[in-house]
Amino acid sequence: MVYFIEQKFSVPYYYKIFFTKYVFNIKNEILVNIIKKDLILERKKLLVIIDNGVIKNDIINEIINYCNYYSKFIDLKENPIILKGGESIKNNFDINNYIYELINKNNICRHSFVIAVGGGSLLDSVGFSVATAHRGVRLIRIPTTVLSQNDSGVGVKNSINYFSKKNFIGTFSPPYSVINDSSFLLSLNDREWFGGISEAIKVGLIKDANFFYFIKNNIKNFINKDIEIMEKLIYRCAELHVNHISSADPFEFGSSRPLDFGHWAAHKLETLTKGRLSHGEAVAIGISLDVVYSYFSGFINIDIVNDIINVFLELKFLIYVPELDFEINDVGDSLIFGIKEFQEHLGGNLTIMMLKNIGEGFNVSYIDISLLLKSVKFLKNFKY
Amino acid sequence: MVYFIEQKFSVPYYYKIFFTKYVFNIKNEILVNIIKKDLILERKKLLVIIDNGVIKNDIINEIINYCNYYSKFIDLKENPIILKGGESIKNNFDINNYIYELINKNNICRHSFVIAVGGGSLLDSVGFSVATAHRGVRLIRIPTTVLSQNDSGVGVKNSINYFSKKNFIGTFSPPYSVINDSSFLLSLNDREWFGGISEAIKVGLIKDANFFYFIKNNIKNFINKDIEIMEKLIYRCAELHVNHISSADPFEFGSSRPLDFGHWAAHKLETLTKGRLSHGEAVAIGISLDVVYSYFSGFINIDIVNDIINVFLELKFLIYVPELDFEINDVGDSLIFGIKEFQEHLGGNLTIMMLKNIGEGFNVSYIDISLLLKSVKFLKNFKY
After folding, report:
1. A239 contacts B5? CB cut-off 8 A
2. What pLDDT shows up at residue A49?
3. How many Å lie between the alpha carbon of A62 and the closest alpha carbon of chain B?
4. pTM score > 0.80 for this model?
5. Which of A271, A163, A372 is nearest to B104 (CA)?
6. pLDDT, mean of residues B4-17
7. What is the ipTM of this complex?
8. pLDDT digits (tens, 9 = 90+) for A106-146
9. Do B11 and A11 touch (CB under 8 A)?
10. Which residues contact A217 (CB under 8 A, 6 or more apart)?
């Protein structure tokens, strides 16, 4: 006879992802409406943490003015805090301690707000501290890059790197709200502008063929920095991302993770290239590799391969870097160890997504190393 | 026109709290059944982290033998790791880093298991690292004290202290399973044995009058260390605790937190007494204070006050320590600042539970400091 008590409950989550321009203009009430929505306290304490990459024009004063204008609802505790964005912020726990200190010093509580303005790395690092202080302070994300607006910034995760392993520490902590402000995209450099498109291509390839062809048919517009086309890409990509999360296993208790198509190699390449490749650039190579592998495995034909790789090349992505090269019995740190690390991070059996058509992914549980070698050689020698 | 996407989902949680004896005896299959239940991987990686307070008899070898006997299902990666338990473990982030290292070194993945054996503090600290490595490795809690078996160990939280503030950092992360093994209670010292009863008294007072009277009527049995009576107390207290969590707001998005009756003062006293009081001992004083405050506020009569305080005194609890004393305009760190800190940790408006009858709590949103002073004096001068 085994005695036990059963505990069973569900935790409901709800948040909105807003699409707007000039979020800190006092005529734009989206932000103040989010903050005043919950009537528990009339005036909410607020900290704003901002990526140094978006400190342009007069944004700091604009934020201060916005909070002053709406001071009936917003209690800005300090001038916006500027942090250096980019992947390096995730390698430095001192930053997390600094954020804990800011939260402590300013008596930020679980019903206060922290706004993080910046690229995906800053949102990830700030998000981890905010999610774990008082077991979770409210976070409003204002992603400022294509990549963070269409992908990580609208999702439910945060993370920092540890032991040189990407995202080793983190939590599943949905944001309180997300505001995608397309005016930030106007000042992105080429790498940031194009970098985020690879995640959109990924979602199209595994979930929505029409979306892939929308990207393919608008290559010229992306090259010409057409902001309206980019807004459309971000909206649809965010929508597919959000639907995927809510449709299955938001906190990833299982093994499958289709949105990580191309990511086992991408994560490893980011480490092997010591940050030379951005996440989006690494994802483009990771997808190309798994597309070619899908071809050599007989899942798709060569036309599809050419179609996809040409889109990447026209959008100025690399599809090969020397760090892809490995030998079957490699003993150093090389690409093939990425398969094992990916499995460990997800847990459970190896589950890697491959392609069976444009718009349709499926899972395999085994990677043939000799086909992988062949795929790397294919990319190395690919003639455009 | 405001454009937005809505994200909405619920995350389901399910776990069992088992009640048993001699969990590491190879004839006891509860643990191995938990580990082999999920068939994703045949053999699960396992780390065992154990409180030095429970290293008695031959428990380390027993654990190793258990894992060897069931090695078809269990892959014990290291001999059990012994850590010093008690509140101090929560003040030392080096411990958390050490646990991250163990998880990394042993390639523990999200589908592996960490078993934490010990008192509430060890479960809290280990729980934080386990919940944040890979965004959550599976944790089996084996609480070994009355307090952890009837209260924190069956709940959904973990935490560490930061900036000398109790539980400043942590997450809501339900365990994979909990095993309450009453054989650990046999070797508890007096303080540990009685210490956990205060949380049971608390739950009785705010939720179940019959349970309070069960405790009152069994005082002699508790003093005589009757293990079967203690098992009954733990079972019912855990049940009430578990039902409370699932019935309302498991991750505490709102302001109300009835299970924290008596805890605003208890948390502050733990800090002010620099660990001289255990959590259970501080809770007994915190409850006594709020019971007397409830009386001076006219919510309950004096007989109820005497009834409750006498139960605490007969169970060898203190109801007064000098750290309770404060002055209205205190400038040093004193009890009254505990009210504000409690509010900040919960967030939102002040919400403190008071008593309107035995078995019935209710929330107030204001504390009258002069009545609080009067309550402290009442406890100081209470004649048994």
Report:
1. yes
2. 98
3. 21
4. yes
5. A163
6. 97
7. 0.92
8. 999 999 999 999 999 999 999 999 999 999 999 999 999 99
9. yes
10. none
Number of H helices, E strands in chain B: 15, 11
pLDDT at res. B330: 80
Q: Which of B107, B135, B162 sits opposite A157 (nearest CB)?
A: B135
Q: Which amino acid is at A320?
A: Y
- Which ranges of chain B would DSSP assign to H, the alpha helix? 30-37, 59-69, 93-105, 120-132, 146-150, 190-195, 197-207, 209-217, 219-223, 227-247, 263-272, 279-296, 302-314, 337-346, 369-380
Residue A381 is given by DSSP the state: T
| Regions of chain A short of the pLDDT cut 70 | 39-41, 255-256, 345-348, 384
pLDDT of residue A37: 87
Strand partners, B75: B45
Query: Cβ B109–A239 below 8 Å, yes or no?
Result: no
Mean pLDDT, residues B342-347: 70
Report the candidate in B126, B138, B77, B74 with the shortest Cα–Cα distance to residue B100: B126
Give the one of B13, B163, B238 whose C-beta lies nearest to A104's C-beta. Answer: B163
- Stretch (H or E) spanning A372: helix A369-380
Q: pLDDT tens digit string along B231-282?
A: 999 999 999 999 999 988 899 887 667 778 999 999 999 989 998 999 999 9
Taking contacts as CB-CB distances below 8 angstroms, the residues of chain B near A11 are 10-11, 13, 250-251
Q: For residue B166, name the pLDDT band (cuts at 50, 70, 90).
A: confident
* A vs B: CB pairs below 8 A: 207
Q: What is the mean pLDDT of chain B?
A: 94
Based on the number of CB atoms within 10 Å of its own CB, is B345 exposed (0-12), middle (13-18) or buried (19 or more)? buried
Residue A255 in contact with partner chain B when CB distance is under 8 A:
yes
Contact at CB, B19 and A7, closer than 8 angstroms? no
Say which of B4, B13, B108 has its CB closest to residue A9.
B13
Assess contact for B133 and B108: CB atoms under 8 A.
yes
Best of B2, B3, B5, B46 to disrupt the A interface by mutation (most A CBs within 10 Å)?
Answer: B5
Mean pLDDT estimate for chain A:
94
- Which DSSP string corresponds to A82-141? EE--SGGGGG-HHHHHHHHHHHHHTT--TTSEEEEEE-HHHHHHHHHHHHHBTT--EEEE
- In our burial notation (b when 16+ CB lie closer than 10 A, e otherwise), range B156-182 reads bbbbbbbeeebbbbbbbbbbbbbbbbb
Q: Which residues of A touch B6 (CB under 8 A)?
A: 14-17
Encode A237-252 in three state secondary structure: HHHHHHHHHHHCCCCC
State whether residue A339 sits within 8 Å of chain B by CB. Answer: no
